[in-house]
């Protein structure tokens, strides 16, 4: 798998609403590998939080995935898992969606960085 | 200049870097939002022309579809390195076997679907930039943490 990934570049996976997934798959990031595992998950009203969490963890374990794109409102559902991910690979990027504009105050990385500028921390 | 002063100077510089990177990341994410918004508008127009369920997740490949490779992947740039990790860049590989994802939605698709595709490709370019900035931000924050620990140790030793 590692050799396979090294030859053809790594994947961008998407966890998002219908339009986000359709759009980025139109952009060419979608893949279904030989084990029949897709690199995307369409989240709708009927998708359980546990399903999203499980999918996110599965993407984190795959060594052919370099970037995980997740809609910010979906990231909110599994915030505890995203906060616990500190490794630079795969990079987790929170992106806005049609119904939820980007809110920097909710972004895990920016919140972590902002936390360092507390007056107590700066001393 | 004592060791403590040197650490404080580096900390000041790193803090400024972190703030600049945070601002840059927010700006790039807003650009991603604009590109996605444009792409979604064109998707909506295509949906209006082709029908409600003709441009939806129903057309996306499923686990039962034949396997296919991604056209757009991420590679590390050889010449640019971020704190030991290579800066990412997009790579578009097109083989004869790979079909254009637009074909999932039919052979006579409206131009809006192509416009949507190009907007999402643009969003992907912004996303790669955002990921590179985010990686630099994480590394900068890590360095700040280390220097703060060192500073604390020096202050305790004093």
TrEMBL record, chain A:
Keywords: Hydrogen ion transport, Ion transport, Transport. The keyword Transferase does not apply. Belongs to the V-ATPase F subunit family. V-ATPase is a heteromultimeric enzyme made up of two complexes: the ATP-hydrolytic V1 complex and the proton translocation V0 complex. The V1 complex consists of three catalytic AB heterodimers that form a heterohexamer, three peripheral stalks each consisting of EG heterodimers, one central rotor including subunits D and F, and the regulatory subunits C and H. The proton translocation complex V0 consists of the proton transport subunit a, a ring of proteolipid subunits c9c'', rotary subunit d, subunits e and f, and the accessory subunits VhaAC45 and ATP6AP2. GO terms for molecular function: proton-transporting ATPase activity, rotational mechanism. GO terms for cellular component: proton-transporting V-type ATPase, V1 domain. This is V-type proton ATPase subunit F. It comes from Zophobas morio. Coiled coil: none annotated. SUPFAM superfamilies: AtpF-like (SSF159468). Subunit of the V1 complex of vacuolar(H+)-ATPase (V-ATPase), a multisubunit enzyme composed of a peripheral complex (V1) that hydrolyzes ATP and a membrane integral complex (V0) that translocates protons. V-ATPase is responsible for acidifying and maintaining the pH of intracellular compartments and in some cell types, is targeted to the plasma membrane, where it is responsible for acidifying the extracellular environment.
From TrEMBL, chain B:
GO terms for molecular function: unfolded protein binding. InterPro entries: Vma22/CCDC115. One of its GO terms (biological process) is vacuolar proton-transporting V-type ATPase complex assembly. This is Vacuolar ATPase assembly protein VMA22.
């Amino acid at each position: 798998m590692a050799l396979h990934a090294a030859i053809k570049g790594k994947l961008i996976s998407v966890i998002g609403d219908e339009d986000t997934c359709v759009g980025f798959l139109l952009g060419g990031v979608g893949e279904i590998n030989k084990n029949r595992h897709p690199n995307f998950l369409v989240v709708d009203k009927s998708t359980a939080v546990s399903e999203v969490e499980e999918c996110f963890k599965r993407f984190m374990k795959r060594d052919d995935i370099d970037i995980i794109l997740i809609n910010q409102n979906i990231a909110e559902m599994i915030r505890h898992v995203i906060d616990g991910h500190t490794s630079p690979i795969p990079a987790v990027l929170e992106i806005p969606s049609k119904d939820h504009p980007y809110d920097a105050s909710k972004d895990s990385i920016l919140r972590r960085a902002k936390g360092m500028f507390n007056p107590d921390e700066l001393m | 200049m004592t060791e403590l002063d040197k650490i404080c100077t580096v900390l000041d510089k790193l803090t400024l870097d972190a703030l600049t990177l945070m601002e840059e990341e927010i700006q790039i994410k807003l650009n991603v939002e604009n590109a996605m918004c444009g792409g979604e508008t064109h998707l909506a127009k295509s949906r209006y022309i082709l029908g409600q369920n003709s441009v939806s997740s129903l057309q996306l490949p499923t686990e039962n579809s034949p396997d296919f490779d991604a056209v757009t992947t991420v590679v590390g740039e050889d010449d640019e390195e971020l704190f030991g990790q290579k800066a990412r860049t997009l790579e578009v590989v097109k083989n004869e076997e790979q079909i254009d994802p637009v074909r999932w939605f039919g052979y006579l698709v409206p131009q809006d679907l192509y416009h949507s595709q190009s907007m999402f490709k643009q969003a992907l370019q912004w996303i790669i930039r955002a990921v590179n900035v985010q990686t630099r931000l994480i590394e900068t924050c890590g360095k700040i943490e280390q220097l703060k620990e060192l500073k604390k140790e020096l202050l305790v030793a004093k």
